[in-house]
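To assess whether the prediction recovers the assembly geometry, we first specified each molecular entity separately, as shown.
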Amino acid sequence: MRNYTENIIEAENLVKKFGDFTANDRLNFQVKKGEIFGFLGANGAGKTTAIKILCGLWLPTSGNIKVAGFDVYKQREKIKRNIGYMSQKFSLYEDLTVKENFRFYGGIYRMRSGDIREKTGFFLKKLDLEKSGDTVLSSIPLGWKQKLAFSIAIMHDPKIVFLDEPTGGVDPVTRRQFWDMIYETAHNGITVFVTTHYMDEAEYCDRVSIMVDGKIEALDTPGNLKEKFRVESMNEVFIKLARKK
Amino acid sequence: MIRAENLTKYYGKTRGVEDISFSVDDGEIFGLIGPDGAGKTSLFRMLTTLLKPDKGKATVGELDVVKDYKKIRKKIGYMPGRFSLYQDLSVEENLAFYARIFNTTIQENYHLVKDIYQQIEPFRKRLAGNLSGGMKQKLALSCALIHSPEYLFLDEPTTGVDAVSRQEFWDMLENLQQKGITIMVSTPYMDEASLCDRVALIQKGSIFNINRPEGIISDFGRDLYALRSRDMFELNKDLKNYKNTHSAFRFGESIHFTAENISGEPESLRNYLIEKGHEDLKLEKTEAGIEDCFMDQMTAK
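The predicted structure of the complete assembly is given in tokenized form:
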């Protein structure tokens, strides 16, 4: 991580309630420019709720939250234009070609035609997929699809990209190539906010937060967390925290 | 016993699996380890009589998957990869429904599902569609067990499930094994391989290794080093550019490295990295895990 100081996410007492149920209970955290921030937690801990708020899709119940410098209550459209998003479940359109997917998302982000063409060329070259530009997405292997989806999520140079379990089910070699891409992206100053169930990937983050039952129970570098819990791996940190309840 | 001989399945021109042979002994936990698209689900569907093989033969408990499909269905429990229970029925209704399909009742086989079902019983009135991921998985397993099957087929039961629930799930499988159930389970998580009695590594429709987990690891056959330095990003790059690198992959907080040619290593590597200016460099020999073995085989092809 480079030593940027600018905060790309600022969350102060983020609360989200659904009736009596508190999905997010006073979350406090900042994420810096160029940081790889791991957002971990058990199923149902409240990660997805928080991500939806940070992406400008849902309104919080209370709290002061800014993403890319914009307010999550009043400037949600601006947030959406300054972030990228990809997940394992929703990524690209299977019945469009590779190039058409770039064209489509570039259009959604209101990029100029020339810029879309330039970025498409740039990423296809980088992924060594220049020959596959006109291939329909459904015939592209999963690993490549995930790399394409990630490239498309950052083609408009967002300030931050949200990756929701981006490597689920991907083979171990591709999983590592994907993380090489994440590293490079962060190195170029785009903040990466990532969730994963692979605990070895938690070790690759600059800092990780671990949510348990709607609260952030730990937030630090992987090294400090392991030291604090006196364990050897992030897997053990995670299990210690999530089992506590 | 589960036995597959030269099983082959194509979808048009796309290969599902090709020429797969293996056998699973009664009482074993047999793991099928491989990424999405490797052919795991095709294999499960053929063994559970839902898909006919193009070529080859398979038997479950001496029964043929094509000829004796009706008899097989009574003996097996199947938990498909995608959640396939009735979302608009409650937890309790789903379980009762599966029991009735097999002409039994929840009461009759409650002892089999008790440990698992008890964890979701407080939510028995809730619609299955409104359960969290971990609870859905427990309900699906209960439904696959309620007719007291001899063989259990679990297709990626832990995908998308957090580390704690995954561990609990494997504890449940061990309990079921002790009750004499033979279990075939697939997973993309390489670390789960060590929890199986034997595993098959599968990639692009073929199995490239079947062995006990310890056996797969002892087959690795290369010197493996774990490296760390203050700047892991640069270390990763420098290792990829090193002239004698056979493989360099990140593993948690270290990078695992194997050399193309072992002579002079790891001293030359150490010198190269010191020249590159790496601080706090740690370089030590380490033991391979299943994931190292899997990647070694993948990149060899």
